[in-house]
Amino acid sequence: MNKIISKEYFSDKVVRLEVEAPLIAKARKAGHFVIVRVGEKGERIPLTIADADVEKGTITLVVQMTGVSSTKLGKLEVGDSITDLVGPLGKATHIENFGTVVCACGGVGTAPMLPIVRALKKAGNKVITVLAARTKELIILEEQMRSLSDELIVMTDDGSYGNKGLVTNGVEKVLNREKVDLCVTIGPAIMMKFVSLLTKKYNIPTVASLNTIMVDGTGMCGACRVTVGGKVKFVCVDGPEFDAHQVDFDEMLMRLGGYKDFEREEMEKLSKLDKEG
Amino acid sequence: MPNISEERSKPWRVELRQSMKVKERMAIPRVVMPSLDPVYRAQNNEEVNLGLTPELAVLEAKRCIDCPEPTCMTGCPVNIYIPQFIKQIEIGEFAEAAKTLKMTSALPAVCGRVCPQEKQCEAKCIHVRTGKDPVAIGHLERFAADYERESGNISVPEVAAPNGIKIAVVGSGPAGLSFAGDMVKFGYDVTVFEALHEIGGVLKYGIPEFRLPNDVIDVEINNLRDMGVKFMTNCIVGRTISMEDLKAEGYQGVFVGSGAGLPRFMNIKGENLVGIMSSNEYLTRVNLMDAANPESDTPVFKGKKVAVIGGGNTAMDSVRTALRLGAERAMIVYRRSEEEMPARIEEVHHAKEEGIIFMTLRNPIEFLGNEQGRVTHMIVQEMELGEPDASGRRSPVEKPGCTETIEVDEVIISVGVSPNPLIPRSVEGLQLTKWGTIVVDEETMQTDIPMIFAGGDIVRGGATVILAMGDGRKAAASMHEWLQGKSGVS
User: B68 burial class (0-12, 13-18, 19+ CB within 10 angstroms)?
Assistant: First the structure.
């Protein structure tokens, strides 16, 4: 169960894992996530499903090794199994023919955007994808995105690849150029905040897929709560996608930082262990 | 199942009754449960109650006068044969007493620890009517179950020959386990589907180790396994597999015991500050994820000034956990008075012994935080008791102008739960109340969809382990009857 079938390094810190999970592969839709746990002392963390193959009975996860748990997951090799894997969770992305959709993604947010782009295309939308990263090495899934989208705009902070600038620069270029009916954004919270501020200015409806801290992922704990339109919502059961213009991103950023000190300590322990070999 | 009056007329019972005068039995004072020293136990996770010794148990069993009409049984949601198991303890047949418990309860060692006996069986004890302390039925139940477990000689209840009919149970908490236990005894092929990575539901993620050790639960779960119940973790019915999938795989009945998953918050200013969380989150981190253990990857805040909002068992579990994680001030903040607290009396008593601060007639109205968004203070409104409300408890009323600001670095909100929406949302045609609980026929626990039965908190909205178990038993009996009527199963 939950065996890793294939693994690919997108960069030092970003890996793609194809995991045996026939039931989840069959049940999942674009926008869904899973909870994974690695090791008997492991933490439960949420990850959006990047892809699935019903025939093979596998799902694809893209992992950025930033913390202890994502590092443990990312270091699993082909043939290893993920201790616990449960899903699909959350509400699926609302897909219909909106017209023209801008998909703004950054970093590993690109991975969960892939099935959304595919579904939007299938529903007849014109999809313009803005793919952003800090630097060239961190651009992932470019070819897949290019083949699925009507247009792909690549942005790097340092200008090492594509256009120099932030994801918002790329999105704004499109907004200035043509009529856009919807924007979908997935990436770091701070990035989604600025995409949201931008599209609000242009009055473009925007959906953000939030990546908050979770424990169970089934509505039980409330760790993932966010304020949307002045009301408290649970990302795991009410989301993960919300009207970005209603999301209190500042509060979300504050809550995401809640366990930073723990995370730093744990990472130090982990790197020490690594060195000791 | 034994016939109560036949059992009572058996020579050994008659002889035993005659061996001691009722008056003498009634004169024995109620046993006091031995417990760990409060100062010692507040620093670790060891179980607080130590259990009765055989001598204490036999003496306490003598207090039971073996009534012809045992009213205690009417107070038990799972109808344990109370006088029978107590009299078996009196004659030293402890293993037999455990077998008697297991006839109707899938989790006796659990119930002996967490049931609110003072509101159930013990409230109906004849001693109470004469103004005396009731027989300590809960302590005796725990004794018999522990005796069997510790003896290593664990009996597996008899099960009927397999009938090959597949039954699915959604959720492995007390409702689901109790249902599964009865159905497997009837001969069904029972599979329990659990969303989390461990079996036990609230018994595992909710109730702390110092009140209900995990190995106690695991032994009872293994007993169900030995009886033939199958378990599947990490599987959410309605998400991982659908009701249709279950039907297609030949399942003929489904019992939903998915629990009251969604924690309630107070919706007051500052409630989303860092360091404020639901008791579900706090207890799940500590109990299920073992977050207090340095080897665990899951973090948990170890606050020094911890306020727990609420007066139920979960609030007591949270505040006592906070104390064990090093809190210097662990406070219960409750809007009514101690008298109205829904927690078990023993939990309140233990909490007080351990040094928990009780701030009653106080209601938080705002939380304040620092620049990092971490909670630092809480403003509480003083309350006074007014007229009784719908629950019969006197309702708290604000005392105008009386507020105070309290320093806190962690706040646990324990003001109740709402039903988990996952199942109700994913099963079409299931009738729900406006609170999101599943509507069932109260007699049969059957929903609008005939093959689906439900019980526990997903029906009640937030109750106790034993009421959930009672629902499980009731649902098992009526599903069995329904299936017999449908297909002639016997």
Answer: exposed
A84: Cβ–Cβ under 8 A, 6 or more apart, which residues? A2, A35, A36, A37, A42, A44, B197, B233, B234
Name the band, by pLDDT with cuts 50, 70 and 90, for residue A274: low
Query: For A86, which of B234, B289, B374 is closest by C-beta distance?
Result: B234
Whether cis (ω within 30° of 0) applies to the bond prior to A88 is yes
Q: Say which DSSP state B319 is in.
A: H
With an 8 Å Cβ cutoff, are A219 and B289 in contact? no
A254 and B242 within 8 Å at the Cβ level: the answer is: no
Taking chain A, what is the end-to-end CA distance rounded to the nearest angstrom?
Answer: 28
State how far the Cα of B157 lies from the Cα of B100, in Å rounded to an integer.
10
- Strand A241-243 relative to strand B166-170, pairing: unpaired
| Helical axes B82-90 vs B137-151, angle rounded to 10° | 60
- CA neighbor of B108 nearest in space, from B85, B74, B133: B85
CA distance B488 to A86: 38
Chain A, chain B: beta-carbon pairs less than 8 Å apart: 121
**Do residue B295 and residue A259 have CB atoms under 8 angstroms apart?**
no
Q: What domains are defined for chain A?
A: 2-89 (2.40.30.10), 100-256 (3.40.50.80)
CB contact under 8 A, A263 and B299: yes
Which ipTM value was assigned to this complex? 0.93
Distance CA B100, CA B98 (A): 5
If pLDDT is split at 50, 70 and 90, which confidence band does A29 have? Answer: very high
CA dist B299 and B297 (Å) reads 6
Alpha carbon dihedral A18, A19, A24, A27, in 10-degree steps, equals: 20
> CB within 8 A of B115, min separation 6: which ones?
B121, B138, B141, B464, B465, B466
Across the beta sheet with A14-20, the strand order is A4-9, A14-20, A58-64, A51-53
Residues of B whose CB is below 8 A from A263: 299
User: How far apart, in whole angstroms, are the C-alpha atoms of residue B358 and residue B330?
Assistant: 9
Percent of chain B with pLDDT over 90: 83
Residue B403 vs residues B269, B335, B381, B400: alpha-carbon distances, Å: 15, 13, 4, 8
pLDDT at A277: 47
Check CB contact under 8 Å for B372 and A254: yes
Whole-angstrom Cα Rg for chain A: 18
For residue A39, the chain B residues in CB contact (below 8 A) are 297
